[in-house]
Amino acid sequence: MTIRLAKIMMTAMLAAFAGVVTFDNLADYGSNYRFVQHVLSMDTTFAHNALLDRATTNPVWWQLSYGLIIAGEFMTCLLLVAGSVVLWRKRHASGARFNHAKGCVVAGFAVGFLVWFFGFMVIGGEWFAMWQSKIWNGQQAAFRFYVAITGVLVFVNQRDEDLLS
Question: Which keywords accompany this UniProt record (predicted)?
């Protein structure tokens, strides 16, 4: 039972994390909107780099991109909350039923990985050369997030056996 409770607790903690990040992005919309604006504009990357043709200075793209980030964070939170609840309800079930109940959790971690790895590392970090910016570089924070998500996903996804009576 301890392992199941740890899986539920760790999932719930990452749900809380995604929820706080979502809340912060809405409560302090302007600060993080400026982050997206600078990354997409590529205005703090190396001068005259060959990738600058990728930059967008269109506020519609900035708003859309930031909206997608917030939506992804919120979806991560919702799926992990739902997954935590389902796992909690199945904590006394057979190993097979508990394993089957992990669908929302896996989906939540997948969405979180999409946001923080694909969104921040692939799109922001590489496509928009965020790594070149000393000011607007979120790669280290994103790395911490998706590594935590991956680590908990690996732990949660380990097969659970039937509980001993």
Answer: Membrane, Transmembrane, Transmembrane helix
For the chain, the structural domain boundaries read: 2-156
Q: What is the pLDDT of residues 122-134, one digit of tens each?
A: 999 999 999 999 9
Tens of pLDDT, residues 31-50: 999 999 999 999 999 988 99
Q: Which pLDDT value is given to residue 70? A: 97
Q: At what angle are helices 139-156 and 103-113 packed, to 10 degrees?
A: 160
Q: Say which DSSP state 53 is in.
A: G
Q: What is the pTM of this model?
A: 0.91
- Rounded distance, CA 125 to CA 95, Å? 40
